[in-house]
Design brief:
InterPro entries: Acyl-CoA_Synth/Transferase (IPR051538), CoA-bd (IPR003781), Ligase_CoA_dom (IPR043938), NAD(P)-bd_dom_sf (IPR036291), Rhodanese-like_dom (IPR001763), Succ_CoA_lig_flav_dom (IPR032875), Succinyl-CoA_synth-like (IPR016102). The chain folds into three domains: 128 residues, 3-Layer(aba) Sandwich (Rossmann fold), CATH 3.40.50; 152 residues, Succinyl-CoA synthetase domains (Rossmann fold); 152 residues, 3-Layer(aba) Sandwich (Rossmann fold). The chain is of the alpha/beta class. The strands form four sheets. It has a seven-stranded mixed beta sheet with strand order 9-8-11-10-12-13-14, sandwiched between helices. The chain has a five-stranded parallel beta sheet with strand order 2-1-5-6-7, sandwiched between helices. It has a five-stranded mixed beta sheet with strand order 16-17-15-18-19, sandwiched between helices. It is built from 15 helices and 19 strands.
């Protein structure tokens, strides 16, 4: 799939002069960030955004690696036939109106044509694909996600645009998180989850894979590909249509056959995947794994300036099966009023130096596989300085160090320092614990 994600030249069939049309948005996206040639194909226009238009793929001045198709469904098979004649190996079919709309025969004709002329298809009825590492936005998403090491493959294009908007928003909790590949499968008439899992297993730019799936067409092949990929890097699976009502909605969305959530969960986890229950949960786990990696054991140290926060963390971690052994350090490094069990409560008046001392004294990497540092904003709290102390400590600790800066306005700058320093942050102990749980399960330390 290298030519799909790393094309030297791209064509947009259905590139439109009308800014309200999908074909216009795709062409504009490619012009904005992609370094290679981008050719608009429109037999009814001479020029688009300063580029010469061509009447068909057969009349382009050079062979392209990727054609993005945004024309009425009825003419897509003919465009794919021309793509094959022009030597185009990959087509991304944005056009809707196939099996999801009851037109199974047209979708079968599309697939037959593609196979006959040697073209591989993404879609139809999809958002497109993005390789943020090279500025390839072959989609009609409003913008590209920040580049990074997470791949997202989804049957819902709308979820993809939501993720892009979320991680491009500048929200402090998403700083430093980015994406390698985005794939909207749509109806997955040809290329499907197994194909992309096999590719991403070998992709050096991808460290974590997130899947949103509603159903799979070839269960054994999907599980084989999942097992191969999950044996090399975390694969997080979010299943839509887990309930009977949700499964009915799946059928009208992409035409996929859904199955029960319980069955999928057992199969996914049996092959080493991470099965999650919700959207936030999926990307919490992805962020932790992409930034900090999995814990080295099931033993966690909690350091907090708030008794309540420490109690919530203790409950959440214990309920998920983690161990919280007491530290072996010297209690005298902290004020006598401080609690030096686990959690280590550095008290509400703790400054950054007290946090630093507590981490250096009690967070023994031979004793703990992860550390959760909790901060609540009080009158003498130093959210930014404390964050810097945590970032410095991360260099000494081999497992993940997680920041829980509870609050919003007064801790926002501290969260930014943590995220920019490679420390994943979460707004609550419960979300942090759940993300750590998924990472630990994948690493088989829990």
């Amino acid at each position: 799939m290298k030519r799909l994600f790393y094309p030297e030249a791209v064509a947009v069939v259905g590139a439109s002069r009308d800014p309200s049309k999908v074909g216009h948005g795709i062409f504009r996206n490619l012009l904005r960030d992609f370094d290679g040639p981008v050719y608009p194909v429109n037999p009814h226009a001479d020029e688009l955004l300063g580029r010469r238009c061509y009447p068909s793929l057969l009349e382009l001045p050079e062979r392209v690696d990727l054609a993005v198709i945004a024309v009425p469904a009825r003419v897509v098979p003919e465009v794919v036939r021309e793509a094959g004649e022009a030597g185009v190996p990959y087509c991304v079919v944005i056009s809707a109106g196939f099996s999801e709309a009851g037109n199974e025969d047209l979708e079968r004709e599309l697939v037959r044509t593609a196979r006959k002329v040697g073209v591989r298809l993404v879609g139809p009825n999809c958002l497109g694909i993005i390789n943020a590492r090279i500025g390839l936005n072959a989609s009609f998403a409003a913008e590209s996600p920040p580049p990074g090491n997470i791949a997202f493959v989804t049957q819902s294009g709308a979820l993809a645009t939501s993720v892009i908007d979320w991680f491009s928003s500048g929200d402090v909790g998403t700083v430093g998180v980015g994406f390698s590949k985005f794939v909207s499968l749509g109806n997955a008439a040809d290329l499907d989850f197994p194909d992309f899992l096999e590719y991403l297993a070998e992709d050096d730019d991808t460290d974590v894979v997130v899947l949103y799936l509603e159903g799979v067409k070839d269960g054994p092949r999907f599980l084989d590909a999942l097992s191969e990929c999950a044996g090399r890097k975390p694969v997080i699976v979010l299943k839509g249509g887990r309930t009977e009502a949700g499964a009915e909605a799946v059928g009208t969305h992409t035409g996929s056959l859904a199955g029960s959530g319980e069955v999928y969960e057992g199969l996914v986890e049996g092959e080493g995947g991470i099965f999650v229950g919700g959207f936030e949960e999926a990307f919490d786990a992805a962020k932790l794994l992409a930034k900090a990696g999995p814990p080295t054991s099931d033993r966690v140290l909690i350091v907090t300036n708030a008794g309540g926060g420490g109690i919530l963390a203790t409950d959440a971690l214990h309920e998920l099966g983690f161990e919280l052994p007491e530290p072996a350090g010297d209690p005298s490094v902290l004020p006598p009023e401080a609690a030096t069990g686990n959690p280590v409560d550095v008290l509400g008046d703790a400054d950054a130096e007290r946090y630093r001392v507590a981490l250096e004294e009690f967070a023994d990497p031979d004793r703990y596989g992860a550390v959760m540092v909790i901060l609540t904003p009080q009158s003498v709290t130093e959210p930014v300085k404390t964050a810097r102390a945590v970032v410095e400590f991360v260099e000494e600790f081999p497992g993940p160090v997680i920041g829980v800066w509870m609050g919003r306005h007064s801790v926002a700058l501290g969260i930014r320092v943590l995220e920019e320093g490679g420390v994943p942050t979460f707004p609550s102990p419960e979300r942090a614990a759940r993300a750590l749980y998924h990472a630990a399960r994948w690493a088989e330390v829990l």
